[in-house]
Amino acid sequence: MAKLKDNCHVLLVTFPSQGQINPSLQFAKRLIKLGVNVTFSTSLSALNCISNNLPSVEGLTLAPFSDGYDNGYPNVGKSLDEYREFYASFIALGSEFVSEIFTDRAKEGRPFSRIIYTAVLSWVGIVARRLNAPATLLWIQPATLLDIYYYYFTSYKEAFKNCPDEDKSLEIPGLPFFVGTREIPSFLLSSNGLMDWLIQTIKEHIELINSESNEIVLVNTFDALEFEALRAIKNVNMVGIGPLIPSAFLDGNPSDTSYGGDLRQCSKDYMEWLNSKPNASVVYVAFGSYTELPKQMMEEIAQGLLQSERPFLWVVNGENTMENLSCKEELEKQGKIVSWCSQVEVLQHPSLGCFLTHCGWNSTLESLVSGIPVVACPLWTDQGCNSKLIQDVWKTGVRVNVNEDGFVEGAEFKRCIEIVMADGKEGEELRKNAKKWRDSAKDTIKEDGSSNVNLKAYVDEVLNSHA
């Protein structure tokens, strides 16, 4: 690790969700390794949940702030109106905090070199602009999605909205595929007012990065994975510095085996259960940190797993209980059901043969780094875009199809699981591609790897030059 520099210190602000905390903490570790001090800031309620698990790293300082929900988020995620109320409170109190901590440190003669903030936090960029503070966006979703958002808000808005049929698609400059409605985040096409807060946030992100010539945006991806997408916006300098996952799973560093920011407690005994299974035999099923699947979808997944006759490890969130499923007893005999687990560890286990996933970006990168092929079942936001990349660009998985009523049947889940895990030609090709991308991801953080070189250049040319 490089010696920490007293005059190089960044404020890293992230949204208090598992999907943003994980890559942000890993990014902080990477910066510290290069000699940069990091003050990590998110809501007090989130840090209270993970205080016992946070990594103890020299150079990492925690600076939580109140978002108005210090005792937890009542019904957040249950109602979009309640979520909007939470986000409004988060913006108001967070903006005040960022302003105060930045100006106070400057008055003390130890200013921050830069503010770095993650997706959905456009307000941090706005506060930084008001303070005349240097700032950088850390985009924790794919570069491809930022391209789609950029062209939607700058030139393609009406074309996107007039493309309602799945058979129709648009050519976006620099992207490796034609973009159809299955790849466009659905809230852009039909928000009905409920997602206006998110649309406004993304629009502000685009306005901020478009207001400066050659604005730098750090992206949780790597050059080989999204080469065209990283270069698709001519006046924006997107820099791949990922994958932002614990280095133990990239370079074998035994001291960095977890993100250190779990908001929930892991279940027990699942690793022992995996140890009892043959190599490449287990289907791992997980749909992210917050997704609570409808009962009908739970039932169809259950039926697909039973029909596959393969052992499975299924992470079931929140109120997604198995109690009301028609096949609960059969499921418990065939597989293991847990409330939470260390996904990076599970995906690295030799018994894993397939990952049935919602295709969140963190899950997507973790499957790539682990060389595990995917059954893609996207639900919303970036997941349709990610599943397109998985199936048609990287060719590391297959996407489930919905029936005429708009849901996925159990037989379809079984079909896709069999494609990925059976001995046929298609499955063999998927597994071969998955291993190819695994090796490519590991190469990118080597001494001369693209992401390592890119991040060093950012530290030397941007952070240290303003220190």
Structural notes for this entry:
- The protein is of the alpha/beta class.
- It folds into 2 domains: 9-248 and 444-463, 3-Layer(aba) Sandwich (Rossmann fold), CATH 3.40.50.2000; 263-442, Glycogen Phosphorylase B (Rossmann fold, 3-Layer(aba) Sandwich).
- The protein is built from 16 helices and 15 strands.
- It has a 7-stranded parallel beta sheet, with helices on both faces. The protein has a 6-stranded parallel beta sheet with strand order 12-11-10-13-14-15, sandwiched between helices. It has a two-stranded antiparallel sheet with strand order 6-7.
- Strand 11, helix 10 (328-334) and strand 12 form a beta-alpha-beta unit.
- The radius of gyration is 22 Å and the shape is globular.
What's the short story on this structure?
It contains 16 helices and 15 strands. It is α/β, with parallel strands linked by helices and 467 residues long. It has two domains: 9-248 and 444-463, 3-Layer(aba) Sandwich (Rossmann fold); 263-442, Glycogen Phosphorylase B (Rossmann fold).
Which CATH architecture of the largest domain would you pick?
A: 3-Layer(aba) Sandwich
Report the CATH superfamily of the largest domain. Answer: Glycogen Phosphorylase B
What spatial order of strands do you see in the largest sheet? 3-2-1-4-5-8-9
Average pLDDT rating: 90
Question: Approximately what portion of the residues adopt beta-strand conformation?
Answer: 5-15%
Task: Give Rg in angstroms.
Answer: 22 Å
Overall morphology: globular
Could you give the distance between the termini? 19 Å
Q: Low-confidence spans: pLDDT under 50, at least 5 residues? A: none
Helix content range = 40-55%
Derived from helix and strand composition plus strand pairing, the structural class reads alpha/beta
Number of strands: 15
Q: Work out the count of structural domains.
A: 2
Q: Helical element count?
A: 16
Name the CATH class of the largest domain.
Alpha Beta
